[in-house]
C-alpha cells in the first residue's frame, strides 16, 4: 500500500522491503524493486552495520564478477528475486563465497518500488533481472 510516498514490498522469501514508491500502487499490486548496485552493501564485509533505516534481507551468493576497481556480487533473495551488489575492490572488503548465505542491506530511501506495468517506462536504474513480480503490502502504522 502507498503511504505518503512509501510502500512495503513482499519478496518471494517472505522478506519485507520498505522503499519509495510511485503513484498508483495499491495493496496487492504486482511490483518490482529498483536499486542501484552501489547503494546496497554487505554488512560486516564492508565494515558497515545496518541501521534502523535499512532494509536487510538474507541472500544466496550466486556469482562474483571482477570488474577492476570493484566486484559485482550477484545474489538471489528467496527462490526467484535477484539483486546485484557493487563491492569496492580493496583489501579491507572481504568477499563472500559463491553458494554462501549472507545479509545484504540498503537504506529505505535508496530503493524504489515500481509497478510491473511501468517496466518499460522505468527510470534508468538497475532493476533485478529478470524482473520478478512481488506484492505490495500494507505499510506498518507510523512507518515512513
TrEMBL record:
The lineage of its organism: Bacteria, Pseudomonadati, Pseudomonadota, Betaproteobacteria, Burkholderiales. Residues 33-112 form the Transport-associated OB type domain. GO terms for molecular function: ATP binding; transmembrane transporter activity. InterPro entries: Mo/tungstate-bd_C_term_dom (IPR008995), Transp-assoc_OB_typ2 (IPR013611). Residues 134-144 have a biased composition (Low complexity). GO terms for cellular component: ATP-binding cassette (ABC) transporter complex. It comes from Paraburkholderia graminis (strain ATCC 700544 / DSM 17151 / LMG 18924 / NCIMB 13744 / C4D1M). It comes from the Bacteria. This is Transport-associated OB domain protein. Residues 124-144 are annotated as: Disordered. SUPFAM superfamilies: MOP-like. Pfam families: TOBE_2.
Amino acid at each position: 500500500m502507498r503511504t505518503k510516498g512509501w510502500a512495503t514490498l513482499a519478496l518471494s522469501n517472505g522478506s519485507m522491503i520498505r522503499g519509495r514508491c510511485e503513484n498508483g500502487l495499491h495493496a496487492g499490486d504486482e511490483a518490482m524493486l529498483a536499486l542501484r548496485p552501489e547503494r546496497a552493501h554487505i554488512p560486516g564485509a564492508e565494515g558497515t552495520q545496518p541501521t534502523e533505516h535499512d532494509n536487510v534481507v538474507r541472500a544466496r551468493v550466486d556469482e562474483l564478477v571482477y570488474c577492476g576497481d570493484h566486484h559485482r556480487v550477484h545474489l538471489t533473495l528467496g527462490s526467484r528475486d535477484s539483486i546485484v551488489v557493487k563491492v569496492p575492490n580493496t583489501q579491507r572488503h572481504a568477499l563472500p563465497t559463491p553458494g554462501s548465505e549472507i545479509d545484504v542491506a540498503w537504506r529505505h530511501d535508496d530503493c524504489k518500488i515500481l509497478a510491473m506495468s511501468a517496466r518499460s517506462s522505468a527510470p534508468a536504474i538497475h532493476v533485478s533481472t529478470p524482473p520478478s513480480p512481488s506484492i505490495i503490502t500494507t505499510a506498518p502504522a507510523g512507518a515512513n
